[in-house]
Amino acid sequence: MGWSESDLCGPEDEDWRVPISELKSRQLMLAKALDNAGLEGALLHNPVDLYYFCGGRQDGAMFISAESNEIEPVQYVRRSLKRAIFEAGGDDAIHEVVNFPRLSQFYDDLSTRGVKKMPSMQLSNIPYSFASKFQSSLSDFEGELKDCNNLVHLIREKKSNWEIEQMRIAAEVQLQMFDSISALGCEGVTELELTATAEAISRAAGFGGEISMRRYPMQCNRGVVVAGRSGGIPSFFDAAVGGIGPYSGAGMGSGFGKIKRGEPVLVDLLHAHRGYIVDMTRMFVVGKLSEEWENRLEDMQGIKEVVVDTLHQRKTCSEAWTEGFELACELGYEDNLMGMKPDQTRFLGHGVGLELDESPVIADGFDRGLVEGGTIAIEPKVVYSEGSIGTEDTWLMTDSGMEPITAGAAFPWIFEWE
Question: Looking at domain 5-155, which CATH architecture does it have?
């Protein structure tokens, strides 16, 4: 008898598919962007972008033509075609969903649809050998193979109202994750035990199991809990705080270290609702932090406010970096901001959405502001051999300026366990 599309549902039989109106808007934005860039079309393979543009991440590809060519979008699927059709909207789907032809026949299929020039691909996302295989099979098309990734990334910077709603729901779950840390924390509990209690909340709420990242070979843990000296350990991950991790093949984030009285415990938790990520960091301690650590946290709050205010004024992300970095230097943190030398990270925030490391970045060289509908995690932190401390929330640029999506002042900047 087989399976039925009615089996594909969210909690309480909710329809968790991406709305067709979202897919239509996104496909049209890319079609217009391709026209403006002088590109014939885009052949998309990256799983995150397949979900974004066609509603699912079945094994395959999607072709979207420049608007002026008037070629309808088509999704090519190796498996599962039946599921891909449902995820695209079923009978109401706004793009065609077909079986992926043999690669030797792929040129003929696209040509029959009216494609005349080599479609662009996501060259900075997909393996070289993978791109070369498609380039070879489509070599009869005119023109050279070009990268369309930047167009896709710019489109995804501006979140729709529906996307923002998913992030707000994610933030509600994330707050429960922090509450679970508050309830379990005590002297002697391990970093991994605290992470596990938060991850249980996230998983039960529908987290899909992966945090997607653009930059190869970055991989990310959903929960980072680092206590005392483990907060001063660098890792492969391009972030202020590394952590020991459970073993060398997963050498970042929470490890087997135990919480000790008076030591700073930095908790950085992610949750993704229907793919959309929110990022937040808070400090915890058994008892009370020393005045020195409290002053450092207060200074990080001040740097955060400068960065937020700079973006609020519609200034560029590079200006926000400069303002925040200069204040950090004035306060004496040049050697400890976002890590210790030689392992410092040169940013104070990063775009978030379907991926953790989206554009723009609060860093030198990002000479444009945050667009309305843009979402960004702002995270000034300082790192010492005795530990790390800082703050982080995910922010949204609205028509009236910056506002937090995550808890903001609704959760303490530092939570004191007894």
Answer: 3-Layer(aba) Sandwich (3.40)
Integer Cα distance of 285 and 369 in angstroms: 36
d(CA 203, CA 59): 24
Closest CA to 158 of 69, 36, 33: 33
Query: 216-240 as b/e, with b when 16 or more CB fall inside 10 Å?
Result: eeeebbbbbbbbbbbbbbbbebbbb
Spell out a b/e string for 117-139, using b for 16 or more CB atoms within 10 Å of the CB, else e. Answer: bbbbbbbebeeeeebeebeebbe
Distance between CA atoms of 53 and 73, rounded to whole angstroms?
A: 10
Q: Which residues, 6 or more positions from 271, have their beta carbon under 8 angstroms from its beta carbon?
A: 170, 171, 173, 174, 177, 202, 205, 207, 222, 277, 278
d(CA 247, CA 252) in angstroms, rounded, equals: 9
- Helix and strand tally (H, E) in the chain? 10, 16
Question: Residue ranges per domain, the chain?
Answer: 5-155, 158-417
Percent of residues in the chain assigned helix, strand, coil, to nearest 5: 40, 20, 40
Question: What six digits make up the tokens of 274?
Answer: 């229907």
Q: Could you say which DSSP state residue 147 is in?
A: B
Q: Are strands 276-286 and 414-417 parallel, antiparallel or unpaired?
A: parallel
> What is the Cα–Cα distance from 370 to 319, expressed in whole angstroms?
11
Cα–Cα distance list, 154 to 27, 66, 157 (Å): 13, 16, 5
- The one-character DSSP state at 49 is H
For the chain, how many residues are written? 418
Low-confidence ranges of the chain (pLDDT < 70): 1, 217
Q: Do the Cβ atoms of 22 and 155 come closer than 8 Å?
A: no
Question: What are the beta bridge partners of residue 97?
Answer: 75
The pTM of the whole model exceeds 0.90: yes
Distance CA 373, CA 361 (A): 15
CATH 3.90.230.10 is right for the domain spanning 158-417: yes
Rg of the chain (C-alpha set): 23
Annotate 320-335 with DSSP letters as a single string: HHHHHHHHHHHTT-TT
